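For the sake of transparency, this paper describes our internal protein records without simplification. Because each token names a local backbone shape, the row as a whole describes the fold. One such record is reproduced below, unchanged from the form in which we store it.
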Amino acid sequence: MTFIEITVYTNALGTEIVSGALFALGYTSQSIVDTREDVEKFLQDTAKNWDYADVDEFNLTDEAKVIVYINDTEKKDEAILDIERAIKNIRACSDLDIGSLRVTGVVRDDVDWVDNWKKYYKPSAIGNRFLICPNWEKPPETDRIKLTIDPGLAFGTGLHPTTRMCIELLEVAVKGNDDVIDLGSGSGILTVASKLLGAKSVYAIDIDENAVKATKNNVSLNEIDGDTVTVRYGDVLNDSAFFNEIAERSFDIAVANIVAGVIIPLSETAAALIKCNGFFVTSGIIMDRLKDVEIAISKNGFSIEAVKTDGDWAAILARKGG
């Protein structure tokens, strides 16, 4: 199948005006692409959540875009004329500088990217004990622990170095009968891995509702007793009431595969949640921030037991002092 992609080039001020005008015409399937300058400013303003972002990968320009999508390719010329008339009306009714307002239209193949990437995601041996297998693949015969995963809309397939290193460190940390807290569960792969390694219970938390759904789904896919896993939506860093509720419990192990900018403040939170001699497993750390994370973890009463690296990424296994 194919579809029409019609783009109106504007600026930050014009995106809402153009989008509203096209929506009023019935073009409700839309996306807005910000300018390179706007994206760079956003990344700067939210720097604590981003350790690395390559703006060049976003294929941005100096113009913002409002893009509409139409299924009926035979109506391409009619749709472009319709949109061009709407743009002329905007020009006539406004003295604001809202960019060039040029209009382009192309016919594109309707590739289902959500499913297309799956052909590259195959069963993979991770660490010393696991075989990570997407739920649409039949796992091969193996003596490894089979961990079935459907990432859904959440991060965590097991293929990224940060996730893989976390699993390898969990193999060291989980001794059996442990209470684990997964701070930022994503797809739930680390929650499931902890249970399959013998954890007595796992408390999984994420600030993304899609991640909460994905975690619950993957717990079910692996036939794990739901009574031993709690999955919650919440923010332990910024919601004191939520943190206080969680802190009524204590955990043998905390695992966090996030980014250094979050791990640094989270190390104090983890120290309050982990029992003496318990482990803090953390990853998602780019090498340039490793020292900063090590300092923060040490300041909060942990001794660093091991550091794993893979390319630009690092993971830490730390133990809470008595």
User: Anything to note?
Assistant: The mean pLDDT is 86. DSSP finds ten helices and 14 strands in the chain.
